[in-house]
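If it is no trouble, might I ask you for a protein's amino acid sequence along with its C-alpha cells?
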Amino acid sequence: MLFGSACYASDTPTSSPVPDTLQQRIVACTSCHGVHGEGKPGSEFFPRLAGKPAGYLARQMRYFQSGRRKYAPMEYTMRQLSPAYMQEIAEYFAAQQVPYSRSPLPPVSAEMLQRGEQLVNKGDTARKIPACVSCHGSELTGVEPSTPGLVGLPYDYISSQLGSWRTHTRATVAPYCMSIVANQLSASDITAVSAWLASRELPADTRPQPAGSVKQPLSCGISDAMGTGA
C-alpha cells in the first residue's frame, strides 16, 4: 500500500505533497484490481474485489501478511499494514458496486459443463463432495460476513485457486474446509466446476446473501473459500 507522501520522498523542497486520501493510499490495490476493484481486464489472475464481503477481504489480507496465502507482491504489500487499515480497505471494496465483465472460456464439452453444474449445485455424495451452493449461497454470490461469491470469476482464476488449495500454497486456520473439498476433486472435476462457474449467467442481485441464510454442510465455522486475490 502507499502511505501518502512518505512513499514519494524527494530532495526537491517544491515537490507537491501527495494527498492523504483513501484513494491515494489504495493505489497499490487499484493498479492491479481496478479503480473500484472490478478486476483487471485482460488478466485472469487479478480478480474482482468489488462487492465481496468485507470480512472475507480483510481475512485474505491477513493471510497474505502471515504467509498462509502465497503471492509475493501481495505478501510484500500487506507486510506493514495494521489490522485497522486492512479493515478500512476491505470495507471500501466491499461497498463498491460496479458491473461484472465476462471472461473467455476454454473449449469444453457439454458433458463437462453438465458435470460442473452437478458438482456446483448438488455435489457428489458418494465422494463426500458438498455442493458449492451449500456454502457460497444459492445464487453463488457469497454469504455475509465472510464467504465470497463465485459468480463472475474467470475460469483461470477459479481453477488456479482450487489448485492452490490442493498444493497448500493457499491455506487457512483449521478446520481446512476448502483444502478438504479441493483434494476430493479430480483434475477433470476442477475443469468442470471452473468452466461452469465462469459460464454462468449473473443473477439480478449480485450482493452476498445475509448472514445465517446458509447452513454449511461441514463443521467449518466461518467458511474460508475461494474468491479474491487479495
